[in-house]
Amino acid sequence: MDAEVEADPAHHPTKSWEIQGYKVNEGPAVLVRNGRVFLTFSASATDANYCMGLLTASASADLLDRDSWTKSPDPIFVSNDETKRWGPGHNSFTVAEDGKTDVLVYHARDYKQITGDPLYDPNRHARVQKLFWHPDGTPLFGVPVGDGGPIVRLGLRDSRDTFVRHAGTAVQVAPAPRDLGATQFRFVAAADGSETIQSVDQPSLFVRIEGTSVTLAAAGTPVRRIPSRGGVTIRTVADPALYLRVTAGVVSTAKSGTVFRLS
């Protein structure tokens, strides 16, 4: 590699998150969407420091010209202690069976501590999860999710870019929040057919309903999903007349429920 490229911070591992253990930029994968070319790459040693960065160029640019590319200042996919996924990277992209849903494929470990050189630790297993998009047309990776069933976002039926999210233990509604993980949930089934709603990025926490208050807590309130036109309503098992309802951006309970889109 010539001296000019070596000195170019946009095309060489110089950022702190690219040089942990080793100076590494490897495993490129390309996704062309929304008039742009997105090129992911993996950086640093293949332990918990391993992560993914992103280069972006216009689809009409000369892609062989280094000045066409911009590197995101921070990694876009990193280890997550809460979901117990470490060293995500060396990804690729594909499309789901519906022919339109973008899917992220990557590998990661489900333990953090490694004995010896991490390059020779064999347990980097392949994983897949849905890739989302920001309203501005750039990819939204979220967090490497842990074990469990299907993941959904609870959107409002009448607002395509508004979702239920948690902020700490508060449960609220916000327009297209950038922290994808906080908007993702799992419905965990019980033997009696009821479900609890589990946070994906805080998997030890569940939606708890006490009176009109809706929060995240260690124990979730059993609910049932009721099909409704354009989505579902969610009612409590203990009181079948009590539903989750969104009013002025606040999630509470009422005798009539908000219709949620599951996406």
Verbal overview:
- It is a single chain.
- This protein is mainly beta and 263 residues long.
- The chain contains 1 helix and 21 strands.
- The strands form 7 sheets. Strands 10, 11, 12, 13, 14 and 21 form a 6-stranded antiparallel sheet that branches. Strands 1-2-3-4 form a 4-stranded antiparallel sheet, with no helix packed on it. It has a 3-stranded antiparallel sheet with strand order 5-6-7, with no helix packed on it.
- Strand 15 and strand 16 form a beta hairpin.
- The chain is globular.
- The N and C termini lie far apart (45 Å).
- Mean pLDDT is 92; it is low at 1-8.
Task: Detail the poorly predicted runs.
Answer: 1-8
- Oligomeric state, counting identical vs distinct chains: single chain
Please compute the radius of gyration using only Cα atoms: 21 Å
Order of helices and strands: HEEEEEEEEEEEEEEEEEEEEE
Mean pLDDT: 92
- Report the sheet-strand fraction: over 45%
Structural class by SSE content: mainly beta
Q: Globular, elongated, flat, extended or rod-shaped: what is the shape?
A: globular
Number of E-type strands: 21
Largest sheet: 6 strands, antiparallel
Any descriptors?
263 residues, mainly beta, 21 strands, 2% helix, disordered N terminus
Q: How are the secondary structure elements laid out?
A:
Layout: H1 3-6, E1 25-33, E2 36-43, E3 51-58, E4 70-71, E5 86-95, E6 102-109, E7 125-130, E8 132-133, E9 139-140, E10 152-156, E11 159-167, E12 170-175, E13 184-189, E14 195-199, E15 206-210, E16 213-217, E17 223-228, E18 231-236, E19 243-247, E20 250-254, E21 260-262
Antiparallel strand pairs: 1-2, 2-3, 3-4, 5-6, 6-7, 8-9, 10-11, 10-13, 10-21, 11-12, 13-14, 15-16, 17-18, 19-20
